[in-house]
Design goal:
heterodimer; A: 132 residues; alpha/beta; 5-stranded parallel sheet; 42% helix; globular; B: 568 residues; 6-stranded antiparallel sheet; 19% strand
């Protein structure tokens, strides 16, 4: 089976690089970018299965990015990443078609599970996938 | 990132003290007292004036009613007395003209005339004729007075000068009171004679007694010296001094009030007599006390009613005002508390977000290190591991920085004055907002003077002021907006900080209210206390805050702060 292609979008470069490497060690085909525009450019150029998207970024924010991703490819699953539980922005993101959301810091096993679920087209049993 | 800090003055600050004095019991007692006094004064004064005027007018009318009949009586009595005297004088004048000097000089003829006069008029006791030298030529009566000379007697001089004379009453040799009536008959060439009669006062007594109008009253004659000429009931006997005060001269009937009685008097013309009439005792007072009592009862009941209504009404109203103030103060405290709680919530969320980013990096870097150690057959290269550990340490430092900044902020919440560079303070405050500015692409421009001014003020309070205003600016601008912050030195030893945004602006009708407590345009989102608290802090620091705004153009807040004096 082909590796799951994951794009990680977060303005914290160090977080992106560590997550990319850890996911790759677990058999994912993970790539990382540090801005919304970069993510959109990447997605226009290459195929991808799941996007892990930070909500709060300079320039294009997470909500704007997910809106454009869904314009580009409504079937592409997006998982939201947030620093704190701003219920309002999470609700907005979910309304825009996000698959699920995760809170920083993320437990790697949790992330793997949700990424797999997203790629399999299966919505998670329960939303509110906290760090644990 | 931190998007707000707790608002509100520190506990025990001035505003709370003011509020306490505003709703203290003493203040409402004073308000009540002022209300009761002023309303009572306004209501009772006209009542007192009206009652006084009413009483005075009634007294006047009552007195008038008492005095007018007495004046009429005494004047009529005086006319009757004048008629009595004139009647006798006319009879004597007739005798003096009808008979010759020679006839009258004969005592026998004179006796006949006296008998005729006694029979016709009554009251005559004797009759005499004197020549111009004062010698008694003839006499008819009970005494032997012929040949006596009266030239030096005052009455003789009086009658030769004036033509007629009425004497005062005196006791004669027979010891009964009578008076003298005399007239002078001019015969030409400096010659003439005097006809003189003694009149018994019994007649005049009866006449005067008949004037008595009211039972219990008194009526009598006095001479010019106040000596009784006729007997009185209660003011002394004949020729005693009347026990009334001296009566001032008056050309017509007059009334005096003496010891609660009315004394009416009138001068009998052509005589030394004054007719005096005294009202019964208490006549004057009979209407007074009843009226006074009625008026006092009316006044008392009215005043009590007014006071009752005023006191109960004022107490009720002041009570309601106090309840309303208390409710308002309680609501204010509750809102302030909720505002603090909401701010605390936002602060926590901001801190959580700010700290979670580096914590996430630590987690992933440490996780990656563990992955490399567990998932690889061989140890990863040393440089790689050092790299990851460095990254963890850097992120941990970031966390430390955030907590330090938070602690530093909390420390400045204590009230204390120190020398502050406003520029540095503004940069510190913006440190909390840098991330949001970056996320929202908000440009922040500074316009600071080259030589940064300093002020002596409270750092923590000023942080709150600027954070509140800059937060408002952030709320007002769209993403990609612009906020300018500047400092200018102002005349009068002050420094002004201005914060300008190119946001939505404030409508003119809201500008006047933006510092009012509970005024908010963020429907449901704000407590409306932020700017009111900011205003309170600036006032407390001795400064001023003003705002200029135009809808669609932007808003500029100007905070002017005194430089203050450095503490020694």
């Amino acid at each position: 089976m082909e590796s799951l292609r994951v794009l990680i979008v977060d303005d914290e470069e160090e977080l992106v690089s560590a997550l990319v490497e850890r996911l790759n060690l677990r058999g994912f085909d993970a790539r990382g970018v540090t801005a919304g525009v970069e993510a959109l450019a990447f997605l226009e150029a290459q195929a991808c299965d799941v996007v892990l998207l930070d909500m709060k970024m300079p320039g294009l924010g997470g909500l704007e990015v997910i809106r454009r991703i869904k314009d580009l490819d409504p079937s592409l699953e997006v998982i939201l990443l947030t620093g704190h539980g701003s219920v309002k922005s999470i609700e907005e993101g979910m309304a825009l078609g996000a698959f699920d959301y995760l809170m920083k810091p993320v437990k790697i096993d949790n992330l793997v599970r949700i990424l797999t679920a997203a790629a399999g087209g299966k919505r998670p049993e329960a939303t509110g996938g906290e760090g644990d | 990132m931190l998007d707000l800090i707790p608002e509100g003055p520190p506990a025990g600050g001035q505003p709370e003290k003011d509020e306490e004095s505003l709703i203290s019991r003493g203040r409402y007692r004073r308000i009540l007292l002022v209300a009761v006094l002023s309303v009572s004064l306004v209501a009772i004064t006209p009542l007192l004036i009206m009652t006084g005027v009413n009483y005075y007018q009634y007294e006047q009318a009552f007195r008038e009613e008492q005095t007018r009949p007495m004046v009429r009586f005494v004047a009529n009595g005086r006319l009757a007395l004048e008629a009595f005297l004139e009647e006798r004088a006319a009879a004597m004048r007739f005798v003096a003209r009808d008979r010759s000097h020679e006839e009258l000089s004969d005592s026998v003829t004179l006796s006949t005339i006296l008998e005729d006069m006694k029979a016709s008029f009554g009251g005559f006791t004797d009759l005499g004729v004197l020549d111009a030298g004062g010698t008694q030529l003839s006499y008819a009566g009970p005494y032997q007075l012929e040949g006596r000379n009266y030239r030096d007697y005052p009455w003789f001089q009086e009658v030769t000068r004036q033509g007629t004379y009425v004497s005062e009453v005196f006791l004669g040799y027979r010891d009964f009171p009578h008076f003298v009536l005399a007239l002078y008959r001019e015969m030409g060439r400096g010659d003439g004679f005097v006809l003189r009669a003694t009149v018994d006062t019994e007649y005049i007594n009866r006449l005067v007694g008949g004037f008595l109008a009211q039972p219990g009253g008194d009526v009598f004659l006095v001479n010019e010296d106040g000596i009784l000429q006729t007997p009185s009931r209660s003011y002394g006997g004949v020729l005693e001094r009347a026990r009334i005060p001296s009566l001032p001269y008056s050309p017509q009937a007059e009334v005096l009030e003496v010891d609660g009685r009315l004394v009416a008097y009138d001068q009998v013309r052509g005589s030394p007599f004054t007719l005096v009439m005294v009202s019964p005792e208490g006549a004057l007072r009979s209407g007074g006390p009843a009226l006074r009592r009625n008026l006092l009862v009316f006044l008392g009941v009215s005043v009590l009613l007014i006071l009752g209504v005023v006191i109960s009404g004022s107490t009720w109203m002041v009570g309601r005002a106090r309840e309303a103030d208390l409710a308002r103060a309680a609501a204010y405290h509750k809102m302030e508390y909720q505002n603090k709680m909401a701010a605390l919530g936002r602060l926590s969320a901001g801190v959580a977000h700010e700290i979670n980013n580096p914590v996430a990096i630590i987690t992933e870097k440490a996780g990656l290190l563990k992955d490399l150690l567990l998932l690889s057959e061989t140890l990863p290269p040393k440089e790689r591991m050092v790299d990851l550990v460095d990254s963890v340490l850097r992120s941990a430092d970031r966390c430390g920085g955030i907590t330090h900044r938070l602690l530093g902020f909390a420390k400045h919440m204590q009230v204390q004055t120190e020398t502050i560079e406003p520029e540095q303070l503004l940069r510190e405050v913006l440190g909390f907002l840098e991330k949001e500015a970056a996320y929202r692409d908000i440009k922040i421009e500074f316009d600071f003077p080259e030589d940064p001014p300093t002020i002596v003020s409270d750092r923590g309070q000023l942080q709150q002021v600027f954070l509140n205003i800059i937060n408002n600016a952030f709320a007002a601008v769209d993403n990609g907006g612009r906020i300018q912050i500047g400092i200018i030195e102002v005349e009068g030893d002050a420094v002004a900080v201005w914060i300008q945004d190119d946001g939505v602006g404030i409508p003119e009708e809201h500008l006047a209210h933006i510092f009012d407590p509970f005024f908010s345009t963020k429907k449901g989102a704000g407590t409306g206390l932020g700017l009111s608290i900011t205003y309170g802090i600036v006032q407390k620091l001795g400064g001023e805050i003003s705002v200029q705004s135009e809808v669609g153009v932007g808003t500029r807040f100007i905070v002017t702060l005194p430089r203050g004096k450095a503490e020694m």
